[in-house]
Design goal:
alpha/beta; Nucleotidyltransferase, domain 5; 2 domains; 5-stranded mixed sheet; globular
Length: 220
């Protein structure tokens, strides 16, 4: 398995960029809950911890441990959240870019360059960013951001489970598992379901909604 390293960051540090923010998001495909993105700035002497990888490939206990290590060692870290209401209003694609721009505008110290998993950030100077295909698998900063974002969102969905105990949010985190589909058919949609995702096909409803928007800047 290919593990993330700091080769991309090193090349950018050598070009004079000091604060390089690795950025990734989680929750784009989830049927419920917010979209969450994280930005992480690492130092040139950052020691990559054992097990750092794309968050989807790391077990929950290891993710939690890595999240603590990354937060302690990072030069800068910022988490951006976009609500279900905003996602339904503007689409998940535009919501993703809003989250990314929140990170660029708010992370401290201010990043002078951004490296993003698969995307270019709209309305940000292309000279100050790089879209990296499979970035969460090969780039340490992006992998670190994916871990931070995943742990934050998973914990949020676990808390929402207690508010909506019939839906299993603590296990599937809002994604479209068979259990989640059955819960929607039985109980209908909650306030945290993304109605723009046409979830009404799962149960008898008078609502009809347009499908979720896709991001056009994803690298093929």
């Amino acid at each position: 398995m290919i593990l993330p390293d700091l080769e991309i960051e090193k090349s950018l540090w050598e070009k004079g960029h000091k604060y390089i923010a690795g950025i990734d998001e989680v929750g784009r495909g989830s049927w419920a809950g917010p979209l969450v993105a994280a930005g992480v700035i690492l130092a040139p002497d950052f020691e990559i911890p054992d097990g750092l990888a794309d968050s989807k490939l790391v077990k929950p206990q290891a993710r939690n441990k890595l999240s603590r290590i990354i937060k302690k060692a990072a030069v800068g870290c910022y988490i951006a959240e976009v609500s279900v209401r905003e996602i339904d209003k503007i689409g998940v694609g535009a919501a993703t870019f809003i989250a990314f721009r929140k990170i660029v505008n708010n992370i401290s110290p201010r990043a002078d360059f951004a490296i993003i998993d698969a995307f270019h950030i709209k309305y940000l100077n292309r000279q100050k960013q790089m879209a990296v295909k499979n970035g969460d698998k090969i780039c340490a900063s992006i992998a670190a951001a994916s871990i931070i974002a995943k742990v934050f969102r998973d914990n949020l969905m676990k808390r929402l489970h207690f508010k909506y105990p019939d839906y299993g949010f603590g296990k599937h985190k809002g994604y479209g598992t068979a259990f989640h589909q059955a819960a929607i058919r039985k109980h209908g949609l909650t306030d945290i379901h993304r109605r723009s995702y046409n979830l009404d096909f799962l149960y008898a409803s008078s609502f009809r909604h347009s499908g979720a928007n896709e991001v056009s800047d994803r690298i093929p």
